[in-house]
Amino acid sequence: GQSYEIRMLDNRKLGELPEINGKLVKSIFRVVFHDRRLQYTEHQQLEGWRWNRPGDRILDIDIPMSVGIIDPRANPTQLNTVEFLWDPSKRTSVFIQVHCISTEFTMRKHGGEKGVPFRVQIDTFREGDSGDYTEHLHSASCQIKVFKPKGADRKQKTDREKMEKRTPHEKEKYQPSYETTILTEVG
Description:
By secondary structure, this protein is α+β, with helices and mostly antiparallel strands. Helices cover about 20% and strands about 30% of the residues. The protein has helices at about 35-40, 40-50, 150-165, 170; strands at about 5-10, 25-35, 60, 70-75, 80-85, 90-100, 120-125, 135-145, 185. The chain has a 6-stranded antiparallel sheet with strand order 4-5-2-7-8-9. A hairpin with a 5-residue loop joins β7 (about 120-125) and β8. The two termini are about 30 Å apart.
């Protein structure tokens, strides 16, 4: 339920895709499973979640916090998907809320589970000749894990302690921690 900002940036090179200048594009955000094993059963996993949490959504847009988004929509049948239009030439920040936690999809339910990693994926489309947004422009994603506040604090503390015990050589294998995450382009 915590709101996280995702800044939408126009990363075109000069002169690239001039046909979207002054036009709106559509971005679709999805929270999906990162692990291939869970991707195969994603539909059943999400149906199970829906059954246990009637009326709840996995992903929402915090509309009052967001800037520059137009016509935000959340399809009632797709609990893990939201979409909106935006103008690449204007400042756009969308604040998303994930309403499920990573341990809701683990087998054991007695606490202390690792929790499954999710992936936030953003697919952006431009308007086609028929007026619908179907022409793919860009996709990007990043891995996330979602915990309740106390669990998240505990996880960060144990992760920090684990890193401190590693040798400098072992530490090189890990990415440093950053205030912001740049999403990875998906091919």
